[in-house]
Write the structure tokens for this entry.
Amino acid sequence: MAFKIKFSEQAADDLDEIVSYISEELRKPQAARHFYEAVDQKLGLLREHPSIHFFHNSIKHGR
């Protein structure tokens, strides 16, 4: 069962700004596309397996 991920308007704007910065300021459009696709892939995994968030959080905080 896939879950729905909600983005705040600020989060969506931030992602757009990051992708634009990589593409335009750094002049690396392929890297920007790769970054966006990687974020999208990770969100897809999270939609399908929401419990991985808790596992990742536990490792990050040493639990």
Summary: The helical segments are 9-25, 29-48, 52-60. The two ends are 28 Å apart (CA to CA).
